[in-house]
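2024-03-11 09:14:02 DEBUG pipeline.ingest accepted 1 chain
2024-03-11 09:14:02 DEBUG pipeline.ingest length=226
2024-03-11 09:14:03 DEBUG pipeline.predict start
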Amino acid sequence: PSVLPKLFGLAFITGFSGAIMPGPLLVAVIGQTVLQGLRGVVGLITGHALLELVTVALLAMGLQAMLGRPRVRGAIGLLGGAGLAWMGFDMVRSVPHLTLDLGQAGTQVYSWPQLIVWGAAVCAANPYFTAWWATVGAGQLATMVPRTVPEYLSFYLGHEASDYSWYLIVGLIIVTGRNWLTDDIYHGLIYACGIVIALLGIAFIYTGLRSAFGARQGEDVAAPAD
């Protein structure tokens, strides 16, 4: 049971590497929140979460056999760690060019089914979403090595908690009309998050190297003498 909070916490922290970066989902959330309040946030992020539930399930099924091999697990962990470290670095590097434009709004109020479908669709069409799960998401699973349904569920819920947390904060700011989340504060959040994400990426790289080389040494020891 003690591994569940760790899986949840790591997934929650690394999830912000995708959540707080501007993209089509943020634009959709801002537009629908302006038009219909927090209902728009919940509907869109629920659609996003359902898409990620399918993604995690497919990754779990595809990686289950491979994660039993330390060298493969190490290689995937290295790839994911490198991707996470790069995303953290890129978040810090891109800060001067980012803005949280809360003036964006759509013109059509979407129903619950439309919000859910749209939330999934804008993410499925976003190349960043695919790249994140192919590298960082897979790398996290390889590093954390969840084995049971509760462990996978803890990872999934931790990741979704970061998405809901960030977008609900944005939604609350819009609904209440508060202007405290200036670009300077937003930049500070991205700086802090980017540094943490990069450090976690380096930690994942270390874990991946240890798995890969530890497996190699084990194979060398087990090899028969000539």
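2024-03-11 09:14:41 DEBUG pipeline.report Residues 219-226 have pLDDT under 50 and may be disordered.
2024-03-11 09:14:41 DEBUG pipeline.predict end
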